[in-house]
Amino acid sequence: MAGTLLLGTHNPGKIHEIQLILGDLGWTLRSLRDFESVGVAEEHADTYAGNAILKAQFYARSTGLVALADDSGLEVEALGGAPGVLSARYAGEHASDADRRALLLSELDRLATDNRRARFVCAIAIANADGEVLNVSEGICEGFITFAPRGSSGFGYDPLFVPDGYNQTFAELSDEVKNRISHRARALIKLRDHLRS
User: Fold this and answer.
1) Are the beta carbons of 179 and 23 closer than 8 angstroms?
2) 24 is catalytic
């Protein structure tokens, strides 16, 4: 019998994506929205996997549950891989998704480059209540950055990112498509076998 799996996020978009991909495995999925008294894990590692592990360990120890946490980011080739692991804090600690998108577009405009290549990277870690890391998986989705935001679905940089082989941004694609090809989906799909066991 699978137990309870804590999703180490308050982000409704992430919670929705994870539930769609892992919801049929028999685990009871809960999120940090059910644990408002739990603090916020520090993210001071210089890799996605490092930050995912820090968060999974913190939330697992804080709640006594098996915890899943991810760290993801957008890497833009012309910006030397930025914003990368700093994607969520790219425009400052309290900036909105729209602020981060505007800054990214202005940085690319400033460079006056035709190179719009980018990729989303996601690392997902699972830790038990003792803080032991049980699994780490990674997913990557290659694509390019649009010249203006498009679409109303998704979150973060989704309205700017067109995955290879498609003409629509992540914010325009259906959940069904996005949850098959996205960086987070690819990492979660790798994780499914571990959760089954």
Assistant:
1) no
2) no
Q: What is the pTM of this model?
A: 0.91
SS3 (DSSP) at 40 = coil
If one counts the domains in the chain, the total is 1
The answer to whether 72 and 123 have CB atoms below 8 angstroms apart is: yes
Catalytic residue among 24, 71, 164, 175: 71
Q: Is the pLDDT of residue 85 over 80?
A: yes
Show Cβ contacts of residue 109 under 8 Å, excluding neighbours closer than 6 positions: none
User: Shortest CA distance to 141 belongs to which of 178, 92, 111, 183?
Assistant: 183
Peptide bond into 83 cis (omega under 30): yes
**97-122 confidence digits (pLDDT tens):** 999 999 999 999 999 889 999 999 99
For position 91, what pLDDT does the model report? 92
pLDDT digits (tens, 9 = 90+) for 163-197: 999 999 999 999 889 889 999 999 999 998 888 87
CATH number at residue 139: 3.90.950.10
Could you tell me whether strands 161-163 and 133-145 are parallel, antiparallel, or unpaired per DSSP bridges?
A: antiparallel
Domain with 67, as residue range(s), is: 4-196
